[in-house]
Amino acid sequence: MMEMDREDGRTPNQLRPLACSRNVLHRAHGSASWSQGDTKVLAAVYGPKAGTKKNENPERACFDIVWKPKTGQIGKLEKEYEMILKRTLQSICILTINPNTTTSVIIQVVNDDGALLVCAINAACAALVDAGIPLKHLAVAICCCLAEGGYVILDPTKLEEQKMRGFVYLVFPNSVYSVLPKESLFVKGEPMEHGLITSVTNGVMSVEEYLKCLERGQAASAKLSDFLRRNLQLQLPNDLSKSG
User: Fold this and answer.
1) Residue of 95, 80, 66, 93 whose CA lies nearest to 173
2) HSE on the CB side for 80, CA within 13 Å?
3) Of the candidates 227, 208, 206, which has an alpha carbon nearest to the alpha carbon of residue 216?
4) CA spacing 20 to 30 A to 43: which of 15, 35, 82, 140?
């Protein structure tokens, strides 16, 4: 099948250059910046602080997500992003360790050149690690786009996003416990995720096209996982400096 030419010269499966820095905001309990090409997001974590909101389960830790656009007020789309982030972060954290607490995660958009939500998820995950929040596993997010003619491209720029007929945001687990035997894949009594944490579809696509995106996304998520691990591993297991 003929592959699509991309304006920046990438192959369909090629991700943009990745960059991640931790501990970038000194007043936050944890923070990270994450870039994919020219898309850049800052994430700051505050907490856990005692108490939960009325509609939350007081026997678990809960999360409050605040999305800050580059300019202007937040709208319907950003509210949806906050909900997706909240669901995703709650599924990767061990919620039984700090019951009846709220951890705030602030997402600040620095620049949007496509795949903005996945950059925000990746930034938030790195910031949670930086804050010493107990995680079942890390997560990596990726955006797969469907062009006319059924071509799948990964990690789109803003220009590419505008030309697509559909896209999928996928979040895969990147288990720090992957060396353990299957039976021990329980962390503090909670089962680990396998396969897929979050999937959000926009636009029109068939089941076959969705599965093709899923397959491409999963293959590329290994590259993201390796990058995230290399970036975090030095401090990951013993990083207790901030949790006291």
Assistant:
1) 93
2) 9
3) 208
4) 15
Q: Is 192 helix (H, G, I), strand (E, B) or coil?
A: coil
- Of the candidates 217, 64, 208, 76, the one whose C-alpha atom is nearest the C-alpha of residue 139 is 217
Query: Which option is the CATH number for 18-234: 3.20.20.190, 3.30.230.70, 3.40.50.2300, 3.40.50.150?
Result: 3.30.230.70
DSSP classification of residue 131: T
Q: How far is CA 116 from CA 77, 109, 110, 160, in A?
A: 12, 8, 10, 13
Beta partners for 109? 41
Which of 121, 138, 93, 142 lies closest to 236, judged by CA? Answer: 138
150: tokens are 């059924």
- Nearest to residue 176, comparing CAs of 142, 143, 140, 214? 140
Tell which phi-psi region holds residue 168, choosing left (phi > 0), alpha (psi between -120 and 50) or beta.
beta
Quote the CA–CA distance of 132 and 244 in Å, as a whole number: 9
- Position 244 confidence tier, pLDDT thresholds 50, 70, 90: very low
Residue 131: phi, psi to the nearest 5?
-80, -5
pLDDT of 186 over the 80 cut: no
Query: What is the distance between the alpha carbons of residues 123 and 22, in angstroms, rounded to a whole number?
Result: 9
Name the residue type at position 34.
Answer: W
Sequence-distant (≥ 6) Cβ neighbours of residue 211 within 8 angstroms: none
pLDDT tens across 174-184, in order? 754 443 344 44
pTM: 0.86
